[in-house]
Design a protein that fits this description.
By secondary structure, the chain is an alpha+beta fold. Helices cover 26% and strands 35% of the residues. The protein has a four-stranded mixed sheet with strand order 1-2-3-4. A hairpin with a 2-residue loop joins β1 and β2.
């Protein structure tokens, strides 16, 4: 995989929301995806804001030639919102500690 990181800053009620994304291509089949690396913010995130963000990521990914938007989360509300957007939410992320 190879890609470039991009930072987004959105002001919501004068509080920053910071998002890091990476566009990458799989070397095997050259499929390009936008990976949401991190979303960090302050205060309450309403469903309408998440919907706006998801749609913004979708449009941005399409403009960059990506076929999909990918991220990981433990937040149940985001999983449900992902379902509303037609996301495949059945995958499992494995994290192995290397201590």
């Amino acid at each position: 995989m190879q890609g470039k990181m991009c930072g987004w800053v959105v002001l919501l009620d004068e509080k920053p929301l910071v998002v890091l994304t990476t566009s990458f291509s799989f070397d095997v089949d050259d499929t390009k995806a936008l990976y949401i690396t991190s979303i960090t913010g302050y205060g309450v995130m309403y469903e309408e804001i998440w919907e706006w963000l998801f749609e913004s990521f979708r449009r941005y990914a399409k403009s960059r030639g990506c076929r999909s938007v990918v991220t990981t989360t433990r937040v149940k509300e985001l999983v449900e919102l992902g379902r509303k957007f037609g996301a495949d939410v059945e995958e499992v992320v494995l994290r192995i500690e290397v201590t």
